[in-house]
Amino acid sequence: MPEMSRRAFLGRSTQAACLCCAASTLPLAANAASPAIRPALSQFQYGEVQLTDGPLKDQFDAQHALFLSLDNDSLLKPFRVKADMPAPGADMGGWYDVSDDFHVGDKGIADNWHGFIPGHSFGQYVSGLSRDYAITGDPATRAKITTLIENYIPTISPKFFDDYNLPAYTYDKLVVGLMDAWTFAGVSAAKPALDHLTDIALPYLPEKALTRDEMQARPHDRLAKTFDESYTLPENLFLAWQRGMGERYKALATRYFAVEGYFGPLAQGQNPLATQHAYSHVNGLSSAVQSYLSLGDETYLRAAKNGFQIVSDQSFATGGWGRNEGLLASDDTESLYKSLTETHASFETPCGAYGHFKITRYLLRLTGDSRYGDSMERVLYNTILGAKPTEPDGRTFYYSDYNQASTKVYARDRWPCCSGTFIQLTADYGVSAYLFDAENLYVNLYVPSRAQAHFGGQKVVLAQDTQYPVANTSVLTITTARPATFGLKLRIPAWAGPQTRLTINGQPTDVALTPGRFATITRTWKNGDRIDLSLDMGLRLEPLNTAHPEMVALMTGPVVLFPTGDGDASLSREALLSARPDPSGDWLIRADRDVRLKPFPAIGDETYRLYTRLA
After folding, report:
1. Burial degree of 18 (CB within 10 A; 0-12, 13-18, 19+)
2. How does pLDDT run across 111-163, given as a tens digit for each residue?
3. Burial degree of 245 (CB within 10 A; 0-12, 13-18, 19+)
4. Inter-axis angle of helices 55-69 and 6-15, to 10 degrees?
5. In Å, what is the CA distance from 266 to each residue of 19, 304, 377?
6. This prediction's pTM
7. CA-atom Rg of the chain in angstroms
8. Would you put residue 488 in left (φ > 0), alpha (ψ -120 to 50) or beta?
9. What angle do CA 431, 434, 435 make, to 5 degrees?
10. Which of 315, 310, 357 is nearest to 329 (CA)?
């Protein structure tokens, strides 16, 4: 497919917007399964929430346009090469190609990633495009998905998995791609394709989920084969079963649920995560939730909640976690501190943010606890919204750097794992912003957007106009043909100060605005009703951890303010809290030497740091 300009793409997306409702509400199969547990809060269909002008929509549009423009033959090339079929098109490069270049050095670290896992992210690209289609209704997007699936099917062969480094990892990505193409884009061929793929893949998968230690203990001809992630399989397999793709997927999900080495200890409050790969194990927490929903055993919910708490306790002020892609022991108070000078690999951003959004959305739906929304918001504004855009040649932002002398750079190798999760994450921005139950509409994220809901058979549209968190206000407007009675629940962040205010149609209300809770406004809403929320975003300092209270991050609301320039500077508490915005939109500290601070999305090529040592 020839490359399309962003301007042309955006224009066509606007023209196709009227199709979004039909695209987003494709019915589930008649044999869709009912899970044992239904969350208290429901997620909107993709097309029922539309992002409007703002940074989230900019990222969504850029990802959609990029993957719509990629050459189909190049995307399919690894599968055709492995199947001994004619394989036209240019190589994609990086991790994506079939190549003998990949090599792990003596220290167990790859020194050449070219050809690491050919075609690994194809399923994620298809998944992202399928969700994008459900949002936009764009016919060209559905046509591309259909063409990719139809041309992928003849390549499904055991030859693909022969001597493949990470068969479970890539099978999982292909599952979500085929499942989403079938569910959200209506590509009927994707269902039998998944069945055929599963038949082909199973002989190459282990008999159960294996920890990395278990994989290393088994015979292997190269270390890379011990990097596989069979413990992440249950989430998408359970979803495939729930969506009506077959009973076999529930059985497979149960087979790969890692109770012994992972979820069992977590459910008991133990920490089996020390030294483990950060993103894949946080991603695995979503499998714990799906196991709870599908099987009804609360042990798995406890595992997910405890696991997320363990990760939260070792997070940076940005919400990011997993320095050098590793998790820590619960009593390790020094590794985060040492990482500020010893590494630039602080947070695996698109992958980590995608995993973080999923688990916080699941737990928010199950518990109604607004603090999960606070956590999601922190990661949104301090990590992924500041990611450099993915380039057409596969350059992808990978790590957010929290070193004392940090810079933003692309990953060394093209088309890494983060290229696949980035498009999935941006497609999920809308469904992360709002939730609902039978009587209430929940506003989780304050982002420019529009959500469509129904209460008492009455269609209601809630529009949100905001520049938050650059500004501390959000205006929400109700559109309804007839008055509708329901509760509107607004997340009041735990950091919100005493000057937080709420008005309805310009009039103050007596609604309780309790930090760390949802504020509830229940009334009969009329067309044009307006809600103004003003959040008190005073400055505060957050220490790295209890062992290092001298290392602090300056925050306003959910936003970290990163000092730019000299990484060795120290400042007094009074100086840091004297920061004020200047006309450029940056923040400024007037001291012996003026210090300029910026939110992560505003940082370009300059050097910056996350933490400042208190003088």
Report:
1. exposed
2. 889 999 999 999 999 999 999 999 999 999 999 999 999 999 999 999 999 99
3. buried
4. 100
5. 44, 8, 25
6. 0.94
7. 24
8. beta
9. 95
10. 310
